[in-house]
Amino acid sequence: MKSPIALQQDLQNGAINARLQSLCGLDGTELEEKRQRLLHLIQAYSEKFGTDGEVSLFSSPGRTEMGGNHTDHQHGCVLAGPVNLDMMACAGANGTMIAVIHSAGYPAIEVDLSVLTPQEDELGSSAALVRGIASRLHDMGYQIGGFNACVDSTVLGGSGLSSSAAYEVLIGIIMNHLFCEDAIDAVAIAQIGQYAENKFFGKPCGLMDQLACAVGGIISIDFNDPAVPIVNKINYDLRSSGHVLCIIDSGADHADLTDEYAAVSSEMKAVAAYFGKQVLREVDEKEFWSNLAEVRKQAGDRAVLRAMHFFSDNQLALKEARALEQDDFQYFLSLVDQSGRSSAMLLQNLFCTARPQEQAVPLTIALAQHLLGGEGAVRVHGGGFAGTIQAYVPVSMKDAFRAGMEAVLGEGCCHFLGIRLEGGVVIA
């Protein structure tokens, strides 16, 4: 930790450039953009909180789900990775129990961390996440305290890149560094974030988003025991595939879909309950198919279809990981397409059932498939119902693909991203 002025000097003279390079996911051209963002954060921190005391710089990335759509909350398998869009912060302890956070583009928040129980008026807010993380750290026996922070994000809310998980990991690594001597590992940081989102923010979620933001690199995750998830790093560089990863914004708002997400989990669990189990990972797939008629009567058609998706996509996620490990990218693309079809037909998370006339995600998928003409692969991205889709686009088609998508969806809808090698980190 250093004074804001000292960190500013380090950034200006290039002393942190090598560190920033590891947070770039494409060709390194975004290094200067990240350096400028940090300089602006230090300036903002100095203006709001002064230059006395020591601060550190932090980064937490957004994530892309590459395989396993809505499998994590059923203790299944996923494939995911952090992207080169991130949340950055300049933060320092303030000697009180108040967390004061200024996030660019949002109202400042102040959270009294002497109160560590969920507050009803904070449901769905950033303050709830901060309080929840502090509460969990306290329960785990760690010291907590107040801090000042300025935050800047290129992970847009509702982008399908999991801005909430990126924020949770950011707050987790800030408190871990300022008060816990960096004693908490990336998996535990992710679990703390999930706890805050479930218990304080009020949104049921699995652990995939937080782990993908926290750990770094392409990872295969098995949640069979969610308390001790098995995380394997996949040694594969997407840049060698001849394709680029593109996240396309459908234009449909990804916010306020908690009920839709909750229904996916509850319906899958209703099928598991027929067999006396808590989640679908505990159910034998052969028994499921053997008892299909009775399960359908008890749980309903959509729940049964969503269970079918789980069994299919859980295996696809494992196959996708093996395909990348074996450098078989064409097979990987065929698996991605299979996963996309399963989400559309079985999981049914492409549009909000309350607004069936709004079909932005299916339209965006259909347009992307038309433009690719059988090349690459396309699938819904993340939680679904609105938000974004994911496409793997041949490098030779990148410009034409972007032009075709933007002609219908508007300029800036395509985000060509890289997978960065690090998750949530202390930069300096």
UniProtKB/TrEMBL annotation:
Domain (GHMP kinase N-terminal) ranges: 129-217
GO biological process: galactose metabolic process
Occurrences of domain Galactokinase N-terminal (ranges): 44-91
UniProt cross-references to InterPro entries, sorted A to Z: Galactokinase, GalKase_N, GHMP_kinase_C_sf, GHMP_kinase_N_dom, Mevalonate/galactokinase, Ribosomal_Su5_D2-typ_SF, Ribsml_uS5_D2-typ_fold_subgr
Any one Gene Ontology cellular component term annotated for this protein: cytosol
An MF annotation (GO) of this entry: ATP binding
Keywords recorded for this protein, A-Z: ATP-binding, Kinase, Nucleotide-binding, Transferase
Top-rank taxon, per record: Bacteria
PANTHER family in UniProt: GALACTOKINASE-RELATED (PTHR10457:SF7), MEVALONATE KINASE/GALACTOKINASE (PTHR10457)
Family, as annotated: Belongs to the GHMP kinase family. GalK subfamily.
Name of this protein: Galactokinase
Species this chain originates from: Butyricicoccus pullicaecorum
Lineage: Bacteria, Bacillati, Bacillota, Clostridia, Eubacteriales
